[in-house]
Amino acid sequence: MNKETTEQLARAAALEAVKEFEKSQKKLKRVKVFQNAKKLMENYNRICQSVQEGVSELSDVDDGEELVELSAEDIYINSIIKCKLRSIVMIAHIDKCLKLLEEEMVSKETPWKYDAFKYSYLDGQTQEDIAEMLDTTDRTVRRWISELTGILSIYLFGADAIVLD
Q1: Do residues 145 and 34 lie in contact, with contact meaning Cβ atoms separated by under 8 Å?
Q2: I want to staple 33 with a disulfide (CB 3.0 to 4.6 A). Which of 66, 78, 152, 161 is the partner?
Q3: Residue 96 has pLDDT above 90, yes or no
Q4: Percent of the chain having pLDDT more than 90?
Q5: Higher pLDDT, 128 or 164
Q6: Burial state string for 10-27 with b = 16 or more CB within 10 A and e = fewer than 16
Q7: What value does the mean pLDDT take over residues 1-29?
Q8: Rounded to two decimals, what is the model's pTM?
Q9: Which of 66, 60, 34, 57 is nearest to 146 (CA)?
Q10: Confidence of residue 69 (pLDDT cuts 50, 70, 90)
């Protein structure tokens, strides 16, 4: 083999490796967005409960008068308040996206898919129970939930959820 042929083969191999790497990165991003949407929905009720019942204001603390001076405790309390605010914003965003998802399923005349999704994530029912309620199989319920989680991820994360080829 001469030097030119070796260089061409090396370039071709490098280009192929870069293409494969980019392809795997796109797939990884798509999987991560889906997993993030799934994790948000799995923890939605906990986030709501945390916002409703969590201590996040000085008036909620018994000895709030002692926290007048700025200290490490104040910084910690402020971070808790900021976390609560982010949670409130996220809940509002999820609620809006769930409404859009429900409307989409109704317009497609498949409201039972949204029901399965809601029963699973918001009501905490098992796929077997949902399958029985909707007179289908648990495998179908799992497929519907996965499908709607993918759609919800686009509503939640917008263009970041779409990986263009």
Answers
A1: no
A2: 161
A3: yes
A4: 50
A5: 128
A6: eeeeeeeeeeeeeeeeee
A7: 80
A8: 0.70
A9: 34
A10: low
Q: Which residue has the tokens 């809601």?
A: 118
Q: In the block, which residue shows the tokens 């308040």? A: 81
Tokens matching residue 38:
């799934």
Give how far Cα 89 sits from Cα of 85, 93, 150, Å.
6, 6, 21
Q: Residue 106 is encoded by which pair of tokens?
A: 């109704």
Cα–Cα distance for residue pair 73/62, rounded to 1 Å:
14
Quick one: CA dihedral 132, 137, 138, 142, positive or negative?
negative
Per-domain residue ranges for the chain? 30-59+68-161
Q: Which residue bears the tokens 């409201």?
A: 111
Cα–Cα distance for residue pair 138/127, rounded to 1 Å: 5
| Distance (Å, whole) CA 97 – CA 48 | 16
End-to-end CA distance of the chain: 36
What tokens does 151 get?
Answer: 């759609």
